[in-house]
Design a protein that fits this description.
GO molecular function: DNA binding
Structural class: mainly alpha
Radius of gyration: 19 Å
Keywords: DNA-binding
Number of strands: 2
Mean pLDDT: 89
Order of helices and strands: EEHHHHHHH
Protein name: DNA-binding protein
CATH class: Mainly Alpha
CATH superfamily: Ferritin, core subunit, four-helix bundle
Strand order of the largest sheet: 1-2
Distance between the termini: 56 Å
Number of helices: 7
Strand content: under 5%
Number of domains: 1
């Protein structure tokens, strides 16, 4: 059996061999972190964040719903733009990266739950703040790795994401009527250590 695309044919055995090699390399890269592997986690987090933003955007209720929906819509569009840029740059760097739902779920640190749609708007926005903090953990790890590996395009992508995370958190915290550092679980954990 073979898969035909255009004028080229790839046998099922070749596909399996390539997939096994990619899985072996990904396993190695995730145990000895590389900029590409860390960027794969960032990409997976962006994908799951986009799904959560969509879920929250569609399930808002109450008097702040219209303005909250506009904010979440903007964040969703920006998350998708960052995803597209990062995926293209990873491909241009020759990096293997997650592309399937199963891979996104394996490499993300964000949690999904259908029960979240029943949360209040404030609870949903608070969850986005904490998800952005989680995303930022991987971005902050990817930046020095990309610099060390001289992958300046990936480093630049991560810096753009870092700026977006920080600005988005500020917008959300302002909407919630809180100081930028208030209620952020990961910041609270850092202070405890």
């Amino acid at each position: 059996m073979s898969v035909t695309t255009g004028m080229q044919t790839v046998s099922a055995e070749q596909v399996k061999a390539r997939q096994a090699a990619a899985a072996k390399q990904a396993d190695h890269d995730h145990h000895v972190p590389t900029a590409g592997a860390m960027s794969g986690h960032v990409l997976a987090n962006l994908q799951v964040l986009a799904r959560k933003l969509e879920q929250f955007r569609l399930t808002l209720n109450g008097s702040s719903s219209e303005s909250d929906r506009q904010l979440l819509t903007e964040l969703l569009e920006q998350a998708r733009q960052h995803f597209a840029v990062l995926a293209k740059d990873l491909a241009a760097q020759g990096e293997d990266f997650p592309t399937t739902t199963a891979e996104f779920n394996e490499y993300t640190m964000l949690k999904e739950d259908p029960a979240l749609r029943f949360w209040t708007n404030d609870m949903k926005l608070d969850a986005v703040v904490n998800d952005l903090d989680t995303c930022q953990l991987f971005v902050s790890r990817a930046i020095p790795l990309a610099n060390k590996e001289n992958k300046l395009v990936l480093a630049a992508d991560m810096l753009q994401l870092q700026r977006w995370h920080e600005q988005s958190i500020l917008r959300l915290q302002t909407r919630l009527g809180r100081a930028v550092t208030a209620g952020r679980e990961l910041l609270d954990e850092d202070e405890d250590n």
